Input
Amino acid sequence: MVAPQRRAGTGIPGLDAAIDGLRIGDNVVWHCDTLADFSRVLAPFLAAARAEGRHLVYVRFATHPSLVSGEDVHVHELDPRAGFEPFTLAVHALIAAHGREAFYVFDSLASLLDAWHSDLMVTNFFQVTCPFLYELDTIAAFPLLRGEVSAATVAGIRDTAQVLLDLHVLDDVVHVHPLKVEGRSSPTMFYPHRIDGDAAVPVTSSTAAIRLSARRDRIRRRPDHWTRLVEASYDALEEGGPAAGRAHASLADALLGRDDGKLGTLARRHLTLPDLLVAASRSIGTGHIGGKAIGMLTARAILLRDPQARFAEHLEPHDSFHVGADVFYSYLVSNGWWRHRLEQRSPDRFLAAGAELRTLLPTGTFPPAVREAFVDALEHLGQSPIIVRSSSLLEDNYGNAFAGKYDSFFLANQGSPEDRLHALEDAVRAVYASAMNEDALVYRQTRGLAEADEQMAVLIMRVSGDHHGPLFFPHAAGVGNSDNLYTPDPSLDPDAGMLRLVVGLGTRAVDRTGTDHARLVALADPRHRRLADPEELSAGGQRRVDVLDLAAGRLTSVSLADVVRTDVSAPWSLLVSPDTVALRRLAERGRRSEHPPVVADFAGLLNHTGFPTVMREALAVLEDAYDYPVDIEFTCNLTAEGTPKVAIVQCRPLQTRGPGPAVAMPQITARDDVLFACDDFMGGNVRLPLSHVVTVRAQHYLGLSEGQRHGVARLIGQLNRALPEASFALVGPGRWGTTTASLGVPVRFAEINRAAALVEATHAGGGFLPELSYGSHFFADLVETGIFYAAVFDTRPGVIFRPEVAVHRPNVLTELVADIETGLLEVVHVARFDDLLLASDSATRRVVCLRSGGVSG
Output
């Protein structure tokens, strides 16, 4: 027997007798035709609760008439349009506030569909809310309107609820059919019962029982809300007029989110109802498709509908699928990790709970319906290579680029259907896990987004390119910016934009990982001598090409010298040219090469095709539409005749600072007081006083092991947290932010994000070279955070580099960081200053950092 204090009643004595009463902790779902029918059983429940002096709470979130009234009722009005997570958190907060043994009434669960357009999310809400109600010894009543939700939703709710009662009113007679009564049973409990006053009479007649059950089964076959929404939108498209406008608004809410900001407004303006229906037809699950997908689709729509029709013939067709953000939440809920997500909402658990989720997320399983949708997508894509990309709600938006913060994965998509499905599932899991990367979470913290609703949608795209022997790659790819923050010549128009071009996949254009460099192109003058210098292209131009090796089933890099001997069904002369510098050196030594060396200078593409004009005009059109500078990622494939075809695979607002007002540049009077002076920088006009200079001493760094070099990077991260924000400069050899410690200092951006300036310097002994990789993810972070950047090539004319100005001062490292790894004290030097100034002038392309003793003017 259950203890009396653990019991409660429905308010109908006969029904209580039939189901052995309600238990404290029960979540009671009434599956009914109308809310008027629900009111007929709600009234006695409330009367009984009041008679027992129960604490009554009404959770109000629908537009239908109020279900509960009375001064003794605590009413909470919530707006589900804020999104699943904010709404669910608000419900949990009010449940926690009311404490134990409260009695709840909720509005119609089906009304949540108006806000979320997803039966799946209604199920998720129920599945994460009911256990909390159960733990607090409450009783909650939920109306679930028959015909408004799918059979799968009913099944999901049945799995979680303690009590599920099917309610029918036939000929003004109430019938209640218990479908689930957890922990209770009797010979007649699961028959339909006719309510007659206080009595509940079992309907044991086969004729009457069949009449009731037939009606229930007929209605349960109704499609889910999302399917109905899409089908209605197709009908509205045919009808046109106001109906099409309403369908566009509803479908945009479902796919793009209820975003009143600039990106949402822009997308709604340019994505038509047919565009949205194509995206809906390619959706896996439900929910928003995320910022990366929105930016890509919007950019394509803008260019395809250019009034001058300049771009349609130059753009490749597009083919992708969208894993809706609701699938991310469902994955968390179905694998039992929602509590970790709730913990992460606490500021002091934001990073720790994220780390726990990062470990868990690669280990989960997807619901059967999602796996089946994955299979359908793979059948459509065949064995074409694919890329699985993050597309979170906050990503690629105005003010928050999230450049490189979340992961994407290339898949060769070869092998058996089972192998391909497992690879796709693993990639989606890995993208989900990347949402909890420390760098991404720290980025959110520093941008004030830790409490924002961040959901992870996923973009599954057919990789642009073709088979070239056993390899798959596009002829070229890269990054484009409509505003060129790095102009090596003051006469170049920065508004013409810039490109970073590579042969093969674009990974080498966005990452700082290889030993070579992408080709920078100033679109104001694609052939500008400084960016096409034969000596620099020979010494540091692209040497390796990122490709998909289909036989090995992985992303890899191969030698450019080997790739150019491959038939790519297009003229190689558009992409590479003879390496005249290397050929001259071979001739000087009396040597010949069976395969003459080449450089990826793209001279043919830039000089003899319309490609630079198309890219310059496309960037200008996109900037005009965005009303903001833009950053794009693209591929370029060539026809056999050499005509370029471009695919825009990403578009986002480009975070820029602009040159800023002119500043008075100090004149050097004492060279010994100059830390550095050069003309390669990014950050506009600045005049920054610096209190500290953190120097990684190149010669000492050169002697470190791989592990010790990573230790230096972690030590830099400690200093980044210890020093006053935006008051210190970081100075050191080679590329910072690289994952290859032999090329520079392998810091993560979160380990330098409080610096005022980053100065990369050459060191011939170690082969360390800076890389002005403007357009890469790392540089996007620098620009977005406002960190000034300079590259010191100390062999160039007019360049001064005197690190002794800093390292000859006392090293205060131990005052800032305790427990420093043995051997690093000589490598990392922190100098304190009260007279150090960094100043730059964009007009003259000059930056200088010096002590006031070396300044005049």
User: Anything to note?
Assistant: The radius of gyration is 32 Å. Confidence is low (pLDDT under 50) at residues 1-5. Residues 417-434 form the longest helix (18 residues).
